């Protein structure tokens, strides 16, 4: 039986790995379900909780395609620290990776720092690096175990190397207002919904432009006085929620 769970896979690498794992019957762990209204240790409402992934250093940001010529200017001073490793690096790339003997290379000593060519360089977002590690090692932060869990495991035998210790660092985004202020805001938003929203079981988002209660709440938080009837729909909801997280809200609540 194949256990396949790919809910909200946000990266291309993760999706491709799970598809390939599905085809070859590889079991991988569940994605952790998000806990709603989770708080930080000091009482802030968490918007997003994840982990710090890998870091990549690049000379220039962007995507370089093999079918588009690009101009490169290589600075000699920037590569002085790598000069000592150039022979070993070239030998490894030519012999080990390409499988070509060094005797067959005719321009190994040629120097040409100014180049115009179609590069084979792809600089993409590497947010999927850690999902790669997670799936290939069948690990994720919530799947980390301790000695008590291992003691009751059927596969815990002398010499077993199934547990791998990895360093994880949490990365979180949270609202600047604390829980009591957030709950007050949610209460204001619920009380400001119009009659159509409550009686017809329609959400306020669907009829936001026609809902005068939410429009008044908008202008209350935005700090504008005596808005015209036509201007009720001019304040975007994104601006409303962004201002909810700022200190200007203190004078409202």
Task: Explain how this protein is built.
The chain folds into 3 domains: 94 residues, no CATH class; 48 residues, no CATH class; 60 residues, no CATH class. Helices cover 30% and strands 10% of the residues. The chain is built from 8 helices and 4 strands, in the order αββαβααβαααα. The chain is extended, with a radius of gyration of 28 Å.
- Structural category is alpha+beta
**Tally of DSSP helical segments:** 8
**Helix proportion:** 25-40%
| Helix-strand pattern | HEEHEHHEHHHH
Mean pLDDT: 63
Percent of residues in beta strands? Answer: 5-15%
DSSP, total strands: 4
Task: Point out poorly predicted stretches.
Answer: 1-10, 123-128, 200-210, 224-241, 243-253
The largest β sheet comes out as: 2 strands, antiparallel
Q: What gap, in angstroms, lies between the N and C termini?
A: 55 Å
Global morphology: extended
Into how many domains do the coordinates divide? 3
- Write out the strand line-up for the largest beta sheet, numbering strands in chain order: 1-4
Rg (CA only): 28 Å
């Amino acid at each position: 039986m194949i256990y396949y769970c790919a809910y909200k896979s946000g990266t291309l690498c993760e999706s491709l790995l799970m598809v390939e794992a599905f085809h070859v019957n590889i079991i991988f762990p569940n994605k952790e379900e998000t806990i709603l209204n989770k708080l930080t240790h000091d009482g802030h409402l968490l918007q997003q909780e994840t982990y710090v992934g890998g870091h990549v250093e690049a000379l220039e940001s962007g995507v370089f395609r093999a079918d588009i010529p690009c101009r490169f200017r290589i600075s000699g001073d920037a590569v002085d620290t790598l000069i000592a490793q150039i022979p070993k690096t070239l030998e490894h790339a030519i012999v080990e990776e390409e499988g070509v003997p060094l005797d067959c290379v005719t321009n190994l000593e040629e120097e040409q720092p100014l180049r115009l060519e179609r590069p084979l360089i792809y600089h993409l977002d590497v947010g999927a690096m850690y999902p790669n590690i997670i799936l290939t090692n069948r690990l994720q932060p919530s799947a980390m175990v301790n000695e008590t869990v291992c003691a009751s495991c059927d596969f815990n035998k002398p010499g077993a190397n199934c547990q791998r210790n990895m360093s994880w660092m949490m990365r979180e985004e949270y609202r600047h207002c604390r829980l009591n202020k957030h709950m007050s805001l949610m209460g204001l938003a619920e009380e400001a919904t119009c009659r159509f929203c409550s009686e017809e079981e329609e959400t306020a988002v669907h009829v936001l432009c026609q809902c005068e209660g939410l429009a008044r709440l908008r202008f209350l938080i935005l700090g504008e006085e005596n808005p015209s009837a036509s201007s009720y729909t001019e304040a975007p909801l994104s601006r409303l929620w962004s201002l909810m997280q700022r200190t200007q809200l203190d004078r409202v609540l």
